[in-house]
Amino acid sequence: MLFKCKAMRLLAMTFLIGFLAAPTPGESPRKVTKLADGVYEIEHKDGSGGNTTVVIGERQVFVVDTCFLPSAAREDIAQIRQWTDKPVSFVLNTHFHNDHNIGNRAYMDAFPAVTIIAHERTKKEMDMFGPGSYRREAKTNEVIQELLATGKTKDLAYFDARNLTITEDDRKGLKDELPQRLAFAEELKTLKFQSATLTFDHDISIDIGNREVQVKFLGRGNTGGDAVVYLPKEKIVVAGDLVVHPIPYVLDGYPSEWTQTLQNLSQLDADTIVPGHGPILHDKTYIFLLRDLIKSAVEQMDAKLQNSFPAMFQTLDDVKGAVDLSSFRERFAGSDKDLAAAFDDMAAKLVKVAFEEDTLR
Q1: Are 184 and 273 in a shared domain?
Q2: CB atoms < 10 A from the CB of 168, how many?
Q3: Based on the domain organization, do 11 and 97 belong to the same domain?
Q4: 351, 281, 291: which is closest to 315 by C-alpha?
Q5: If we measure between CA atoms, which residue out of 52, 47, 59 comes closest to residue 35?
Q6: First vs last Cα of the chain: how many Å apart?
């Protein structure tokens, strides 16, 4: 999801678990792609969540990520029932960000025997953040309304900047966004959050009927419990937000480990990669580009700290100027100005997260 105004980009980055984007003009609300016989990807483009992947076996159905809005999850369930009369027996949440798991409740209601799987770390974080989804949505909407009313807000506890002000273009974007956001919040108001019912700490393999689904933990990266799904026969990997295209999501996480996790991901024999958000990838070029970006940020930050003082004795302002990721901008954004702006915002956040990770060492 791309945001053209600074205010919306800041909101998107800071209220990560549930900030929703209106569809870009001309985009369809959702896109379904057949990846192989009995394997489908649903790309949600209306702010209703991340990508959902459906794997149909001879006995059962396995779903990866359940998106954000319950209504969108119910639409997905209706679509699955058009493909097969087999039950959804397994759901995997790739990580704790709620745009990938709030739809769990809809699947539990539709298939009461479903097993919802997550890495043990992911479940702990889901249990912490999931029940507060409505409150965060309502809070975000309050900030937007204050910005629209006054042109600024002092309520920036979640922001990197202080006393954010907005331009007229920002105001128009926020005004256009608000009605949909209010409707989304209303939908979440009575939601009963459904967490995972089964956890794992490394790898598990499930046979859903002449189809093997491998669930893997390849290491920490975007979060502490990132899981991927690998279909070895079909050479498909579902990567969650370890991989987001065209601009990665870097909101927290473990940059120094993320590079190795991406390297581990690249070693899977796959020629179809489903990212957490964005279009399907058909080779590993973007995975290597993302790995190199994060590695560069980590190495530059480490070099700065080695030649000055440990992170605990410095502030972000002291060190951020030593990390320059501009050489990657064109490789991610090309000549697209909106993508370039989104890249710059992401790069600043990556530097911040790399520094914060160093402060904990």
Answers
A1: yes
A2: 9
A3: yes
A4: 351
A5: 52
A6: 33
